[in-house]
From TrEMBL:
This is Amidohydrolase family protein. Keywords: Lyase. It comes from the Bacteria. The keyword Lyase applies. SUPFAM superfamilies: Metallo-dependent hydrolases. Residues 116-354 form the Amidohydrolase-related domain. The lineage of its organism: Bacteria, Bacillati, Actinomycetota, Actinomycetes, Kitasatosporales. It comes from Streptacidiphilus cavernicola. It holds the Pfam family Amidohydro_2.
Amino acid sequence: MPKLWTNSGDSHFLEPEDLWESRLPRRLAALTPKAAKDPDGEYETVHVDGQSFRRKLPTSAAVTFLEESRKAAGIRDAGLRLGDLDQEGVWAEVIFPSLGMWASTFRTPELLKACMRASNEWALEEVASVSDRYVVTAQVSTLTVEDAVSELEWAAEQGFKAVFLPTRPHPSAPDWHRNEWEPFWAAAERASMVLAIHIGTDPVDFTSERVGVAYRGPGGAVMNYTETTFSGQRAAMKLVASGALDRHPDLKVLISEGGATWIPFLGDRMREGYRQHRMAVRPELKRDPKDILMTQVYASFQHDESAVAAFDAMGYRNVMFGSDYPHMEGTYGHTQDTLKQLFDGVSEETRLRITQGAFLELFPHVPPVPVGEPV
């Protein structure tokens, strides 16, 4: 069968571990995360921004899982990455960072702002410059709103088209539904910057031995994996219910890797809450909450058969495929098999909208699949 080409609303890149330390002034570089294994071999001591804590090292199974997801050559090399994409039939992709997972541990605004700028400059030099098929997400400090606005405006001037946001901001900052973030939403709308929110990125408490673990016991692995999807749904709910998207109708949001079928359901639930509890609703919205969610929020998935039905049967047009390259939950190594299973017997209109159309609606600057290539 001919290759089916797709764009991807979700992929990842692994930055050099010393990126921040190598690019920051010495006094700030000394505060960036550093870890040393304890003599017992089961724990490590982490020093970051004047704080120190011990944490249990991952199990051998978890380490193996992580290492397997990093074997793809293109996770560290943007040039080699194009070969991986061509092999898989992925044309263009949204690329999320990896090092930024430490952002929630910082407490000094100057340090976090400097780290985000260093990451953005590196991404421009080492990834974005390699190919216009890459939609690299900018990073901003969410410790203070002012710093976030400043970095977003700088990133837009440099050509970034999307900004990565965690599902919740820094623990010391107001949550996304608070009015303090209004200047940021306004700045993003002015810059036509897509808010790219990746599931499972709530601030991490690295002092806990239960990092990434909500459940233990029977079914724990499946429940912990499933749990990560809910953070993206909560972020979308906050942006709609707070009126942020209603006030900024040109602002677009991408929730990556969390599936798509939840959008119509969440819209129904929010519509019901708005209607049945109207006397307590603040703020009042100019538009129906479900309509806001269905039109301004895009959602990427990788394996979910129900996501195709969300487009065909539920009227949700902003469904977008995402390969999650190169994570083990993704489709790397079997993207073509996955696409052919998902779209077997599906109309060409549906397939093209999910694989290419929704992506190009968010990122019209990306060149389409070349004429003559199978689509």
